[in-house]
């Protein structure tokens, strides 16, 4: 009886930090982390909507933001912003979302878009001015 009590106490002490970690990160409990303000920059592309029987499986067209490093973030639908207008353009997207990590891989999940701004193309270099003749 005393041996079982000691084993139970040791197990509780050993498992306590593990359970606390799982609760703090939202992993293991099925809870999503709280959404925070995010700003992402990249180019918007569109996965074409499927037609016929495939449409029922895939749903409407999806919009993806790809940053300069090739990382992709799926953009959520927006009631106020028409994402079609920004396809193929460099933009800065402001919204709410969170970052998760599984098996060492970080993923950004954007849950709401609040604003999209076009990124101005870089200015062309100024022409070289020759030095005055002496």
Q: Give me the count of strands.
A: 5
Taken in chain order, the helices and strands follow as: HEHEEEE
N- and C-termini, Cα separation: 103 Å
Task: Assign a percent range to the helix content.
Answer: 10-25%
Can you tell me the residue ranges where pLDDT is under 50 for at least 5 consecutive residues?
7-28
What is the radius of gyration computed over CA atoms, rounded to a whole number of angstroms? Answer: 25 Å
User: Taking all residues together, what is the mean pLDDT?
Assistant: 77
- In what range is the share of β-strand residues? 35-45%
As laid out across the biggest beta sheet, the strand order is: 3-2-1-4-5
- Shape label: elongated
Number of helices: 2
Report the structural category.
alpha+beta
**What is the CATH class of the largest domain?**
Mainly Beta
Total individual domains = 2
How would you characterize this protein structure?
It is a single chain. The chain has helices at residues 2-25, 53-58; strands at residues 36-47, 62-66, 72-75, 90-102, 105-118. The chain is of the alpha+beta class and 134 residues long. It folds into 2 domains: 1-26; 32-118, OB fold (Dihydrolipoamide Acetyltransferase, E2P). A 5-stranded antiparallel beta sheet has the order 3-2-1-4-5, with no helix packed on it. The protein starts with a helix and ends in a 16-residue tail after the last strand. Residues 7-28 have low confidence and may be disordered.
Name its key features.
2 helices, five-stranded antiparallel β-sheet, alpha+beta, 134 residues, 2 domains
């Amino acid at each position: 009886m005393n041996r079982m009590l000691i084993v139970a106490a040791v197990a509780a002490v050993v498992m306590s930090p593990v359970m606390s970690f799982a609760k703090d990160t939202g992993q293991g409990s099925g809870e999503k982390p709280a959404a925070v303000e995010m700003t992402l920059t990249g180019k918007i592309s569109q996965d074409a909507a499927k037609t016929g029987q495939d449409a029922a499986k895939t749903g409407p067209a999806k919009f993806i933001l790809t940053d300069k490093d090739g990382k992709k973030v799926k953009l959520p639908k927006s009631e106020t912003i028409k994402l079609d207008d920004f396809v193929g353009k460099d933009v800065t997207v402001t919204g709410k979302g969170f970052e998760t990590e599984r098996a060492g891989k970080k993923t950004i999940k954007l849950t709401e878009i609040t604003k999209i701004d076009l990124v101005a193309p870089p200015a062309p270099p100024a022409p070289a001015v020759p030095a005055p003749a002496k």
